Amino acid sequence: MHICESIFKQFQLKPKHLLLALVTVTAWGLNFIAIHVGLEVLPPILLCAARFALTALPWVFFLPRPKAPFKLIAGYGIFTFAIQFGLLFGGMYLGLPAGLSSLVIQVQVFFSMGLAALFFRDVPGIWKVFGALISFTGIGIVASHVDGNTTFISLLLTLLSALSWAIGNIFSKKIAAQSPLALVAWGSLVATPVMLALSYIFEGPDLIVASLQNVSTDTILAVLYIVYVSSFVGYGIWGFMLNSYPTAVVTPFTLLVPVVGLVSTAFFLGEELSSWKLLACLFIIAGLVFNLLEKQIRALSSKQPKAV
């Protein structure tokens, strides 16, 4: 028993919270398959609008509004949902494969650490920064393989999506909602009219109607997964974790999302799992381990004999 407790202490999380973190990254990793399936029929902004509408309604009638100024809830909904997923879905729609999208968006870890240091003085230690740089090497490998199928604009949209997610994390910590599920529902309520308006303006009523006429069972199942597993389960747990631990402890777990994403999309969608993708995953996992074991690494460094 003491041995188990010692192992979990290395991760700076309680055992049940470590399990919750792993459930979240698995749900989000598989979510890229659902997004891919949804985008085969629905244009990206309309898919976002459907996601947020179903996440908000009817649940806002049963979940009380978080006790925070509405401007903070609006900021959370706009950045965590509307902008993040509008850009992410747009990047995938324009050619970034699902597996690579799950990898690139993890740049949010670095954005989150920087913003947390700026707004909350939640400054990461030197070893966490070093771990982040190791993981960033994996992102660099992806960037170096941008080609005709993975256009620069799709990569750029996904990077901006990661920045929006990081900003949304700041709003989440400021709100510190007692019920993360309520925050997800009310944040989605804010995002819904924004995405509906943008879909009407940029995608047009003809494309919207044609897409809805072609909705299949697979499309419906994909949307339901995005809404109830990715949004409610994933962001509900994520909000709880951000309220319970420092940002620099929680956000590195999302670096496991692309590992799940790349493996699952290779298995279910037949995407190529090339050697450079595996190498990128290796760097990302190494960076995550470096972040999680910061205390142990710092302790070992302090025990090194000083030069005479």
Q: Strand pairing plus helix content: what structural class?
A: mainly alpha
Average of per-residue pLDDT values? 84
Strand content: under 5%
Largest sheet: none
What Rg is obtained from the alpha carbons, in whole angstroms?
Answer: 20 Å
Helix content: over 70%
Please give the alpha-carbon distance between the first and last residues. Answer: 42 Å
Query: Can you tell me the number of structural domains?
Result: 1
Outline the low-pLDDT stretches.
Answer: 1-8
Number of E strands: 0
Helix and strand element order: HHHHHHHHHHHHHH
Shape: globular
Structural overview:
It is a single chain. By secondary structure, this protein is mainly α. It has one domain (2-302). Helices cover 78% and strands 0% of the residues. The protein contains 14 helices and no strands. Helix 2 (15-39) packs antiparallel against helix 10 and helix 4 packs parallel to helix 9. The radius of gyration is 20 Å and the shape is globular. The N and C termini lie far apart (42 Å).
Reconstruct the topology from this structure.
Blueprint: H1 2-10, H2 15-39, H3 44-56, H4 70-93, H5 98-104, H6 108-120, H7 126-143, H8 152-175, H9 180-213, H10 217-244, H11 247-250, H12 257-268, H13 275-292, H14 294-303
Helix pairs in contact: 2-5, 2-10, 2-12, 3-4, 3-9, 3-10, 4-8, 4-9, 5-12, 6-8, 7-13, 9-10
Briefly characterize the structure.
With 308 residues, the protein is mainly α.
Give descriptors for this structure.
mainly alpha; disordered N terminus; 308 residues; 14 helices
